[in-house]
Amino acid sequence: xxxxxxxxxxxxxxxxxxxxxxxxxxxxxxxxxxxxxxxxxxxxxxxxxxxxxxxxxxxxxxxxxxxxxxxxxxxxxxxxxxxxxxxxxxxxxxxxxxxxxxxxxxxxxxxxxxxxxxxxxxxxxxxxxxxxxxxxxxxxxxxxxxxxxxxxxxxxxxxxxxxxxxxxxxxxxxxxxxxxxxxxxxxxxxxxxxxxxxxxxxxxxxxxxxxxxxxxxxxxxxxxxxxxxxxxxxxxxxxxxxxxxxxxxxxxxxxx
Amino acid sequence: xxxxxxxxxxxxxxxxxxxxxxxxxxxxxxxxxxxxxxxxxxxxxxxxxxxxxxxxxxxxxxxxxxxxxxxxxxxxxxxxxxxxxxxxxxxxxxxxxxxxxxxxxxxxxxxxxxxxxxxxxxxxxxxxxxxxxxxxxxxxxxxxxxxxxxxxxxxxxxxxxxxxxxxxxxxxxxxxxxxxxxxxxxxxxxxxxxxxxxxxxxxxxxxxxxxxxxxxxxxxxxxxxxxxxxxxxxxxxxxxxxxxxxxxxxxxxxxxxxx
Lengths: 256, 259
Fold this sequence. Notes:
Chain A is α/β, with parallel strands linked by helices. In chain A, about 35% of the residues lie in helices and about 25% in strands. In chain A, the strands form two sheets. Chain A has a six-stranded mixed beta sheet, sandwiched between helices. The mean pLDDT of chain A is about 90. In chain B, helix 4 runs antiparallel to helix 6, helix 6 (about 140-175) packs across helix 7 (about 180-190) and helix 8 packs antiparallel against helix 9 (about 225-255). Classes of the chains: A alpha/beta, B mainly alpha. The interface of A and B includes residues 52, 80, 94, 154 and 164 of A.
């Protein structure tokens, strides 16, 4: 069976800085792939290239065997219909109420009537454990954890085939992070969706992923099932998952 | 290490041309998006309220005092040549052709252009614009086109109201301070006014509305670097819109009135 998402030789640079140096990655239908790696290793850039928010200089990105690099507006819009995205900071529209945020996709893109979309939004808020009254608030009135839940509700509102999670637990306390992890697992499972997450939170990666890939210096240096990560045989992976300062990965910090 | 003057000038010229190219490409993309559905009517109405209704107090205040000062200054000048009777004519022509559209546009650029750049800039740095794309919504169509359409439609209405308020300001000074006959003042105003005076002002207003919205959207859309970037976008939006208003004002005036 062909993969849901397939990347071959994806490269992206910003000026002289080569962020992605030929990424090859396959994500099967219904699989949850987690990409780990240190800050600034290009995880978000990889996600944005798949989403079409950035255009890679080289390589191929296929979704359901359809090439998406260089797609025109109309074709891109069709592909986008398959995607849902949870942004690191939530990226909720602060001028809209919570329910309008969740109902945004159904109303603006799918042409659903506002009254009907409101019902959908309330149901999705319920799926992430939020009461209907929360729907009347504005995003600025919510805590960080609640904003993440609303962003998750918005990401699943159109019942996408593929969901991306960008650092879903960053900035949350450990308990709320675990709540979000559980919600992600539940939502992805309920929808039968394919998921791609990027994180440097290993607890989150182990909980939400079926497979893990590690990005280092623009290349995927290891990928395999979650169960195999503790005996990957790669010194970079070992250093990262144990959070050690000593090892082959050297942080660029100035000596005091 | 010092940079030779020629190199510096060359770099500045290239940067200037690059900026013009980027703004032009942005404008073309926005106009292209405006020509095909969907059109977000609620967004257009919201922006019309922002640009028009909420700008009325500041534009009205500017217009009435401009009209009053114009009448007063004209009197002190024209009295030397016993030409006081021309004051209503000067007030109405100055306001409808030049001061109404230019001053209203500069006030709106300061109020609305800055707000547009700040709002869209914040959306850019908080990934809200990327979120729009992932929700299958074209950010140009949802954010830029409604502002451009609202600017083009609303500014002429705002300027028409500013013209009327400005003439009223001149009338008040003329009648209550300079002892003009009220009926004679109004008759002079109406008799002297030509369709082209008002029409040229309204064309200017529509162009200025487009420029204000374009600069606000462009600088907001391309902002980066967090709060500092949004602040810079806001300043750049107001400065560039003001400069373009004054530049285009000359060329439109030339197109209408040059002999």
